[in-house]
Design brief:
The protein is of the alpha/beta class. It is 34% helix and 24% strand. The strands form three sheets. Strands 13-12-11-10-6-9-8-7-14 form a nine-stranded mixed sheet. Strands 3-4-5 form a three-stranded parallel sheet, with helices on both faces. Helix 3 runs parallel beside helix 4 and helix 6 packs across helix 8 (265-284).
C-alpha cells in the first residue's frame, strides 16, 4: 500500500505533511484530487459534518474503499446515507474505531466473555467531551457487551475542555441487562481514561490510553469475613503497530482477499446513536430508548 496523494484545504498543513510523508501530489480540492489521481482507497479524516459530501465525491469517482474517521458523520440520517452510498457502489467502508483492529482488545474481549465470571457492573471514567471521547467508548462497550437498550444521563459538573462537546455522567443499559456507569472528569487537571469491569470472580481495570491492565482474582486463601481479591498477572501482548496502521491493513486485505471489516458503517452508526442518545437524555432529563428513530 502506497500513500500517493494528500488533500487539505489548509495549504500550510498540506505542504507540511507532504514533506513529512514524502508525497508530491498535493491538492486543496477533493474534486481535483480524484480527477488527477487513480486511487483505490481514500482516508477521510476531516470534520464529521464534511464526511457525507466527501463520500459522495469518492463514490462518484469509483473509489474501492474508504477509511472514515470517527464519528461516522454529524447526524444519524447522514450516517445512514453514507452507508447506503457505499453499499450501492460496492465500496468497502471502515470506521476508525481503532481498538477493534488491535489484537490486544480482540484477545481481551475473549477473556472478558469467558474468564471473569458473570458481569456485575462496568464503570467508564473519561473526559474530553462525550462526542470526542464518547464515540470510542460506546464502540468499545458495544464490542465487549453487545447492543444497548437505553441510556440515562445528566450534564457533568466536571466540565469538558470544549464547550460545544459537554461531559455527561450516565447509565447505559444493554439488552443482556449489563449496566455501565459513565463518570466524567475535567481533563484540565490530568488525563485519565479507564474501563473497570467487575465480574463475580474477578475485577479487571484497563487503562485505555496505554493498555495497561490491573487484574484481581478472588483469592483461594481463607479469610475471616468476605472473600478477598489478589493481583494476578495478565500478559496480553501489545501491538507494535498503530491503530491506524492496523485499520489500513484490515481495509486493504478486505479488498484483496475479502477479509471481514472489523468496524463497519453500522458500527459507526450505532456508536454515534449511543452518543446522541446520551446527549438527548442529559438535556431532557429522560431515559432514552435505543434504537432512535432516524428522520
Amino acid at each position: 500500500t502506497n500513500l500517493v496523494a494528500l488533500c487539505d484545504v489548509d495549504k500550510i498543513k498540506l505542504k507540511k505533511y507532504g514533506r513529512k510523508y514524502s508525497v508530491s501530489k498535493l491538492f486543496d480540492d477533493p474534486n481535483e484530487l480524484f480527477e488527477n489521481m487513480d486511487l483505490d482507497c481514500v482516508s477521510i479524516c476531516t470534520h464529521a459534518n464534511s464526511h457525507l459530501e466527501l463520500v459522495k465525491i469518492a463514490a462518484k469517482n469509483g473509489i474501492e474503499a474508504i477509511f472514515l474517521e470517527k464519528p461516522i458523520s454529524n447526524s444519524l440520517s447522514n450516517s445512514l446515507q453514507i452507508i447506503e452510498i457505499c453499499k450501492k457502489n460496492k465500496i468497502k467502508l471502515l470506521i476508525d474505531h481503532q481498538r477493534r483492529f488491535d489484537p490486544f482488545f480482540i484477545n481481551l474481549k475473549k477473556f472478558v466473555n469467558n474468564e471473569i465470571g458473570k458481569i456485575q457492573t462496568v464503570n467508564i471514567i473519561y473526559g474530553g467531551g462525550i462526542v470526542n471521547t464518547g464515540t470510542h467508548i460506546i464502540d468499545l462497550l458495544r464490542y465487549f457487551f453487545g447492543e444497548i437498550s437505553s441510556v440515562n444521563a445528566s450534564l457533568s459538573q466536571n466540565s469538558s475542555c470544549n464547550t460545544l462537546d459537554p461531559n455527561v455522567d450516565g447509565k447505559i443499559i444493554f439488552k443482556n441487562k449489563i449496566i455501565c456507569f459513565l463518570h466524567a472528569l475535567d481533563l484540565s487537571n490530568y488525563g485519565f481514561l479507564e474501563m473497570q469491569i467487575f465480574g463475580t470472580n474477578s475485577v479487571l481495570k484497563i487503562n485505555l490510553t496505554n493498555n495497561d491492565i490491573e487484574y484481581r482474582l478472588v483469592s483461594k486463601k481463607p479469610s475471616l469475613a468476605y472473600k478477598t481479591l489478589e493481583i494476578k498477572n495478565l500478559n496480553f501482548k501489545k501491538s507494535k503497530k498503530s491503530g491506524i496502521f492496523l485499520g489500513v491493513e484490515n481495509l486493504v486485505t478486505s479488498i484483496s482477499d475479502k477479509s471481514t471489516l472489523l468496524c463497519t458503517g453500522q458500527d459507526g452508526l450505532k456508536s454515534l446513536e449511543g452518543v446522541i442518545s446520551l446527549i438527548k437524555s442529559a438535556k431532557s432529563g429522560k431515559t432514552i430508548s435505543i434504537p432512535l428513530k432516524i428522520t
